[in-house]
C-alpha cells in the first residue's frame, strides 16, 4: 500500500532538502516535500514572515493529499508547521494523517524564548546563529553572494518562528513520534511536552548528533517512519 509522507522544511530549507530521503525511501513510501513561498521551486513568490500565513499555504498543499494514506513529517521549523496543519485538518474534519513525525524540536507549548529575536540580529550575529545550529556549510554562510540570496529566506523563517505564539487546544487523535539529537538544545521535558498535543502515547527517540542529526541518520529515520506508518495503515484498514 502506497503511503505519502508530506515533508515540511526547516528554516532556510526547501523541498530539495529532502532529496536524500527520497533516494533512500522504499517505493511504497512516497516522499512528498513541499516548498514554502520564496524558495526552491517557488523562489519567485514573496516570502512569508507570519506562521499563520505559512500554515495557510501549507494547508492548501496538504488538502490535495488528504484523501490518500498519508503521514506528516517536519524538522525544526517544519515541526511547528506540520503540527499546526494537523490541528487545522482535525478542526475541518478532513481525513487525518496516519502519523505525525517531528524532529529537532520540543513540543510547541514550550517557548524557544530566543532573545533578542534572531531575525533582528545584525548580519554577523545572524550568520553566527545559523552556524551554531549546524547543517549549513561554512563555505555557503561565508560567501556574500550566496548569502545575499539566502539571508532574507532565513530571516523570514526566523521571524515566523520567533513571533509564533502557542495557542492551547484539545489534544488530537493522531499519534506522534519525536526524534531529537543528543547534542542539540532539546531537553527531556521539552520532548515530553509533545504529549499535551495528542491523545496517544508519544514515541521518543534520540540519536547522536546536533540539530541536523537527521542527515547523519537518514536510513534509520526512514526505516522508523516506514515501519510505523505500515503498522498504522493496517490499523486504519481494520
UniProtKB/TrEMBL annotation:
SUPFAM superfamilies: alpha/beta-Hydrolases. Gene3D superfamilies: alpha/beta hydrolase (3.40.50.1820). Coiled coil: none annotated. Residues 5-227 form the Thioesterase domain. InterPro entries: AB_hydrolase_fold, TEII, Thioesterase. Belongs to the thioesterase family. This is Thioesterase. It comes from Chryseolinea lacunae.
Amino acid at each position: 500500500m502506497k503511503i505519502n509522507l508530506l515533508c515540511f522544511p526547516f528554516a532556510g530549507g526547501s523541498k530539495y532538502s529532502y532529496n536524500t530521503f527520497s533516494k533512500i525511501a522504499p517505493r511504497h513510501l512516497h516522499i512528498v516535500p513541499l516548498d514554502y513561498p520564496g524558495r526552491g521551486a517557488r523562489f519567485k513568490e514573496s516570502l512569508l514572515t507570519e506562521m499563520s500565513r505559512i500554515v495557510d499555504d501549507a494547508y492548501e498543499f496538504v488538502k490535495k493529499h488528504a484523501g490518500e494514506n498519508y503521514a506528516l513529517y517536519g524538522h525544526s521549523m517544519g515541526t511547528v508547521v506540520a503540527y499546526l496543519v494537523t490541528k487545522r485538518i482535525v478542526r475541518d474534519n478532513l481525513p487525518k494523517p496516519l502519523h505525525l513525525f517531528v524532529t529537532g524540536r520540543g513540543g510547541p507549548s514550550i517557548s524557544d524564548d530566543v532573545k533578542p529575536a534572531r531575525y533582528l540580529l545584525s548580519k554577523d550575529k545572524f550568520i553566527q546563529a545559523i552556524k551554531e545550529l549546524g547543517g549549513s556549510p561554512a563555505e555557503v554562510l561565508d560567501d556574500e553572494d550566496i548569502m545575499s540570496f539566502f539571508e532574507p529566506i532565513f530571516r523570514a523563517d526566523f521571524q515566523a518562528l520567533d513571533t509564533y505564539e502557542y495557542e492551547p487546544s484539545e489534544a488530537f487523535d493522531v499519534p506522534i513520534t519525536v526524534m531529537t539529537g543528543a547534542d542539540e538544545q532539546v531537553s527531556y521535558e521539552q520532548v515530553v511536552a509533545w504529549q499535551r498535543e495528542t491523545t496517544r502515547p508519544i514515541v521518543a527517540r534520540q540519536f547522536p548528533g546536533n540539530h541536523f542529526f537527521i542527515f547523519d541518520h537518514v536510513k534509520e529515520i526512514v526505516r522508523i517512519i516506514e515501519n510505523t506508518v505500515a503498522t498504522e495503515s493496517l490499523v486504519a484498514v481494520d
